[in-house]
Every structure is written in C-alpha cells, then in structure tokens.
Amino acid sequence: MVRTAVGYCGGSEAQPSYRAVCSDPQYDDYAEAVHVDFDPSVISYEKVLEAFFKMHDATACGRSRQYASIIFTHGDEQAQAAQVALAAQPRAATSVEAATPFWDAEAYHLSLIHI
User: Fold this and answer.
1) How far are the Cα atoms of 50, 53, 60, 79 from residue 90, in angstroms, in the given order?
2) pTM here?
3) What are the pLDDT digits (tens) for 41-86?
4) CA distance 67 to 80
5) Angle 24-7-51 from CA coordinates, rounded to 5°
6) Which residues have CB under 8 Å from 78's CB, separation 6+?
7) Torsion of CA 14, 102, 80, 78, to 10 degrees
8) How far is 20 from 41, CA to CA, in rounded Å?
9) Which residues, listed in sequence order, are joined to residue 72 by a DSSP beta bridge?
C-alpha cells in the first residue's frame, strides 16, 4: 500500500502555508511536495522513483523553488538510489536533497495519487 499527502518540504521555518510559501521571504526555501509513505516489502524505493519520473515532468524548471523538481530523501540509501535514478534521466532538472520536516498542506489542496 502507498499513501500520499500533499504539502511543503525543504524549508526551515515552522508551519508553512500556501500563502506564506508564495509571498513571505521567510518561507521561500520551501517546495510544494508529495510525501509518499510506502511499504518496501510491497513496493521498492526504486519503483517509487520510477513512478516519480513517469508521472512528473522532471525536465521543467520551476519558476521558483516552490515549484522545483526535488526528490527529498531519508538517509544515505535513498539518496544514493535517487542519484542513480536521476543519472538515468539526462534532461532532468531535478535535484536530490535530504528531507526536512514535511508539513501537510491546507485541506483545500488535498488529493489522491495512486502508484
């Protein structure tokens, strides 16, 4: 089973909101993100990365960090796997970064993504 949540990651200030991420310089280090909670005995991290590149245009450069293509990783193993997957996408404008705390988006942003 895979569960997802939409929200914000990559920033340093607590409690980001869409309004703050869009207009407050204190929150301009955040990116809009999808948190993927998966069971590695059911689906591998490599398959999650494969789905990321299949469902997302990683070649598009965002207008700002808010819309940047970023893979936030949890630990060295994920970071290494993400770098390998990224290397196979030569046109990708995606970066790989260590995850900071994930903050859920406001309720009106919620949607379901199925992998």
Assistant:
1) 14, 12, 13, 17
2) 0.88
3) 999 999 999 999 999 888 887 678 999 999 999 999 999 999 999 9
4) 23
5) 130
6) 45
7) 140
8) 38
9) 97
